[in-house]
Queue: 2 jobs
Job 1
Amino acid sequence: MVQEKSLYTQREGNRKFDEMRPIRAKVGIVPSSDGSAMFETGKTRAIAVVRGPRTLHPQHMQNPQKGILRVSYGLMPFSVWDRIRPGPSRRGDEISKVSEWALSSVVDLKAFPNSVVDVFIQIPQADAGTRVAGLNAASMALAHAGIPMKEMISAIAVGKCDKTILVDVDYNEEHFEEGEGPTDIPLAVTSRKQNIALLQLDGKISPDELKEAIKMGKEACKQILEIQKKALKEINTGDKDE
Amino acid sequence: MENSEERQIVIPGENIVSGDNFLPGEGAYRDGNDVVAKRYGIVNISDNYVRVVPLSGVYFPRRNNVIIGTISGITMNGWLIDFGGSQNAFLSLNEVPRYINKNELKEFLDFGDSVIVKIWDTQSRGIDTSMKQRGLGKIEGGMLMNVNPNKVPRIIGKEGSMVKIIRNATDCNLTVGQNGVIWIKSNKIENEILAKKIIDYIVENSVLVGLTEKVEKYIKSLGLEIKENNLNANDDEVEIIEEETDKEE
């Protein structure tokens, strides 16, 4: 039984298959922090706050050669339809860790020995793609905090519903159970060298389709970078130009 | 390409200039033929030397900066100073301009005491500071206030002009630490409060153009006078510090 046509033909709101949900980005949303940013795609929203570089305690965790980066990711209890138990979870810890690895490929903390840069990512509203939204916000927040970075990170979740490759999947698409089922590929790309900083795969996909999906994802990341750039350049840094 | 007037804001990873003639300075790095921003900030190109001046974030210690901090530790031969940066600064016993018994370091500076010190080295181990200059030393009396370190240039003004205005209007002695801590000292506490109000006003309304006029207007609305040349005996003492910090900027 070879089925030629994909079962998934129409996206919500007439969105094209390579089209992202409406994006909003804002920098400097938490005045008490050293750097902060908000990133929103459709109904998914992420807030990232950066504190530091500051002295790391306990002392035995300090690295005398360079500063360390610590990322914590969490869904707020009210972010999903059902309540989520607050506090650390298996999923949260894992996403914290992969976000940390993705971000440490661009930040350069050689100038801050024995210190730590803390990144807190919180999701007040979730509709799939929260880790990539969190990475986009974190990358802006780190830049806003003045942390030396070789380049920025832009991230997008590409996916596949049955045979259709999609950019920026939402909750319903992530749970599309017909045909070949759903595939979810969070992808983070560095802004300058177009290196892949994060690539996860959940579901089934053929090598050719994966290549196609990554290509589409990289294209989307370019658009996201422009939005991040605009948000960073627009913010009121205190020097109000009148 | 000499110091273009428009302020070019760059984000990390963004090309600033291309070509072999340019040297990457603070906040920039070279990638092949391009000089690339490493930090978010405003581009400053002078003599083919490309720098990125940060716009936000924590205070980065620099040589010759005057900072105000509190004693957070006492070691065998000096004190550790917490100034709100990524690591603590160190004030060596040798950098204090008077004799101190090595066993009684606490007698001179105890935990929690505030000090004005100057950074003389950030390259080797940690941040080394000195107290061997006029205007530096232990803080006694007066009031300390914290502002965003990125607003410090606004508060100092061109060659200390803004500080001068505040000092003359309120009869206060001001020392502005580059780390965003300001020491206000006057005989009357009312004057100190007025000076704090003016500084808060500057921080909230730090426009680039016409800030001086705006501040002068605000000072008048507080019922104070703007005196032009007030020859206060303490004036030059503070100025020395400001001038030297400005050079580094």
Job 2
Amino acid sequence: MKKIFLSALILLFGTLALAEVKVVTTTTIIYDLVKEIGKEKIKVDYICRGDQDPHFLEILPSNMLKLRNADLVFKIGLGLEMWLQQIIDGSRNDKLKLIDLSKDIEKKEIPTGKIDASQGDIHPFGNPHYWLDPENAKIMAKSIYDALSDESPENAKYFKKNLDDYITKLDSKIVEWKTKMSGLKGKPIITFHKSWVYFSDRFGIKIAGQVEPKPGIPPTPSHNAELISNIKKSNIKIILMENYYSDNAPNQLSQSTGVKVIKVANAVYGQSGINSYIQMMDVIVNSLSNNL
Amino acid sequence: MKNILLFILVLFSITNIHSQSNVNPDISLIGSFSVFTNNVKETPEYGKLNFEIPSMEMYIDGYLNPYSRATANIAYEEGEFGVEELYAQILRGLPLNMQIKAGKYLVGFGKLNAIHPHAWQFIERSLFQQIFFGEEGLNDIGVNFSFILPTESFYSNLDLGIYKGDAIAKTEVLDPEDANSYLDLRGNSPIFIGRLSSFFDLDDYTNLEVGLSGSYGVHTKMNFNTFGDSSAEPENNSLKYFYGGLDFKLKYKPDSYTSLTVQGEGLINNRQVFRQGDIGLNIPIEKIEKINTLGGFIFIDYLFDKQFSVGAKYDFTYGIVDGEPSFNSLSNDDKNKTQGISGWFGYYPIEETLAFRLGVQNISFKYDDGTSQDSETKVTLQMLFSLGPHKAHPF
């Protein structure tokens, strides 16, 4: 009897020692960073696919199921994932911890004055597309490390080593990306949505306008006419856009002015060949630098 | 034990309604304006542009505490204000991951009934819902208990609720100026409504939800003598009904600009009805019979370029569509039928803050006794707007 009891205890504690931290992320960007820090000590899944617009997501019950037994859910924050709370509520998980990765990010474009829908779909707490600056990816990785270590203190050293390795890898890639992007420094480009401000500030690109007349508002003929004039006047060569937006309006601009439309994923698994954050940044940087 | 303690704590936190708070709830407003015409010569609307009184729904919605939230939906329709919905939900912290919803709300019998009309792709309520639930749908006072079932590979949910039953057969007011003049058909007889639903990710872009619904209870109480002796003291009889429902929704959404939805629902109505007969020699008999009727719809909707939608719907139901469900329409009208064919075009200029919908519906009637009634065609143009925060759409 004593042996059986002892075996049961060993089995129980053995199982606890092997227990993984169950993580769900809102985007595939965070998913990749969590995988890099947690590796085999965590189990991770994501909600928004890489080829989906994270601003608008339908509430699918299957996503509630993902969160049902999760320990942690990570989000970009700053109002990007307006759909998340409904999924959390639907999961009924009262032990779930929500980690907002924007907390240590230096926010840009925080609106001042009265905010209303006449300004389009603006984010009242600042522009949420901060992951497109690789320096911010380092801050996100550090926040992920903090949360995983709090959740699983016995694996904190393991997570720390993974964090350090990843930051070292990112640092060397940042040098490479900066070198490749140096030819674009100070040059104006147009973006589809107001999502590239962190990216452009990091690499010194000037954003001369957006295809959307206001954030989230579909392109209009009158705004296109303004852009055509601007493109010609400022000799703009590139329109940079996420691949989940329609390229009808950018292609019209291209036909009228010869401007090159670069359509890239801004998330992991957003297009074939992008299976990590570093691969995504490689594709974005190479697409821009090869089209100088 | 821990769960029971948590349950008590949650209940306590909900009853602690005098706690101070400096957080405002979300307030949003849906406005609707319609103009229509029809081809029914007997009606004053025939061939004219008829402007309906604008209607609105104001939602006040927010968390009461970390475990629960409350929603009020104040509606202004046909020139009158009313409480469309008023309910609280306990979302988490209960044993078995249960959720509780209590108050007045659109009940989840089938998929469509719980969705507000402004979020439908089409304008007119489905015909079988008009017959069996009334023009406002199955909106009732009660409490629902919701459970996620332990199916690991797909999502399954079970809802079980008990309701007052007003949408099944309302108390009929005979004289609005006399508070004592009413016909209470059901008395104090709660009804039961449940739904079992499962959701499947068929692939990254295709989702399917299927549901089974059921509702059971007393639809009418009345005094009569089932033995045929009309001079005897009548017995009090409760006439019962059972609604069985089947629904599905299949949606293919390859990107944020395009989607194709095929959705349908069906209802089987099995109910006891009161019949008066004659056993010969002018001897009347009063008896209870069982009838089976049904209704349903299926529609297809195609959204393209994010801003446009086009679709078509086929409706069929036993009964003649005309106002609220009543003892007569549901119990004695079992052989008459209504069918409808609708088409629509929707335009959403900027997200869903503004929508224009043009709908055409043709309804035809078939009476068992040979009575004829011309088919009716109605054309409606509707404008909807959404002011304030609006939530993401559930599947």
